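Deliverable D4.2, example record:
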Amino acid sequence: MQSFMPAGLSWDDVDALAAQVVAVGERAGLPFVAAQSDLGDAAPMADRNGQAYAERMPWLASASCYWRNRSLALRSTFLHAARIFAEPIWYADGRLGSWRDTSALDGIDCSHVWQEFGFTGAIIAPVHLAGGQVGTVLWVAAEPIDIADSFTRHAESMFALAYRFLAAHTELTTRRARKPPGQLSAREAQCVRWAAAGKTNAEIGTILSLSVSTVRFHLRNAAEKLGATTRARMIQIATGHGFLGPHA
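Output generated by the structure prediction step:
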């Protein structure tokens, strides 16, 4: 199978992907670009020298240096959409949609976007990475655009490129020797799932027909495998890595 990325990932690769992200937006008629590899990080996505990638990506002149606004990620409807929906999203005429019918985006009010920001259309690529990290790449137009045509022709390749770009950036910025979570046993996962539901060790023992000491043993093992030092952190990591399922 052909590899799309050199075995030794480098910052040059990430920079090249950033340039591709800008170029594909131009081809799609969406020349303004913004990217953030981790929406939970108040600092902007930066290169090897600590320079924000936003500084090399074109954006509307009326909102220059927007990345310095640390509260933007909490207020942006586009970024909220990226958090709750993991497929490509289009914006046009004050509303959001995707390549399939979905009610997930119906409750997001985008009626103010044109008046406030001047966006006439956008393609949003949510990037949901391991551990619960969410990033996104936004491509935006400020002139009239047939967003349906652009989405049909370009969204799939834009989504794939956004994923490669943000995943590569995350790989390089998290290469500090952090041990990946281990695999939980079925019993450990059961105990953590009930702990996430707010049950005490005694209640978990009753539900699973285990002694309290056995429940503690399984939770202690799970926490060690996940690299967690508290019950809350154990549950957070387990949820982010998909051990608990959507109803935990």
